[in-house]
Amino acid sequence: MNDFIQACIDANEEIAKAFEKGFDTSWYEKTEVGAGGDVSSRLDLFAEEVFFKHLSSFGEIESEESGIMGEGEIKIIIDPIDGSSNALSLFPYYGTSVARVNEEGILDAAVVCNLANGDLFIKSENEAVLQGKLFSNNFHARHTSSASEIGLFEKAYAHPLLVAALDKAGLKFRAPGAIALSLAYAHTVEYVLFVGMFRIYDFAAGLALCEGLEVIVEQDYVIVSKDKSVLEKIEAIVSALEDE
Fold first, then answer.
1. Fewer CB within 10 A of the end CB, N or C, for the chain?
2. Residue 61 assigned ligand-binding role
3. Could you give all domains of the chain from N- to C-terminal order, each with its CATH number?
4. Is 44 annotated among the ligand-binding residues?
5. E strands present in 87-129
6. Are 120 and 133 in contact (CB under 8 A)?
7. pLDDT score of 33
8. Annotated binding residue 10
9. Alpha helices in 33-159 (DSSP H)
């Protein structure tokens, strides 16, 4: 485990330990619109502070909350809390997302953590994605499923016509509300679909974990699947609705 990956793990473990004590009432307070365009909560800012403490020595940090922080040739892109609305509602599907881009502009490391259950996904340059748990030094090849029955459709609530079209096509889905986590689980579900504005904070780390899968990235939608025919079927549905 290299120093950067270990620092990411250490940050996640510090945040997870804080969560074990219960959510501080101050974390629910809303502050101002962050760099990513959403209103930041004190929870987001708490997690951002922890990541800055652990990662600032490695390079410049670009956070969804505060934008550019620190300096350095290496860029570290973070979403301090992926699915913060879930977290503040105590719905167990929320985590963190970290991606590192080296001096040549190549994304060479990514860490996504599900703080709700401790699932941890790591990707280092030229190495396969590994999966493990927080507070454990045991990592293994990521889990996969050859009999996936559902996909994950992020921001489904904003696209009722697409929801109806997927249902008509027999493409079941859930809409859990944390895109980096959903991409981290892309090997175990039938597909992952996101329709909306592409923001680097949401996708940098998650897409790095999707190696070996079929991936389409457009300005206003992202589709990932193990099955090329499923990918093409969904793309045709999305394109048809855009043309109407």
1. C
2. no
3. 3-141 (3.30.540.10), 151-243 (3.40.190.80)
4. no
5. 95-101, 107-114, 119-124
6. yes
7. 61
8. no
9. 42-55, 84-88
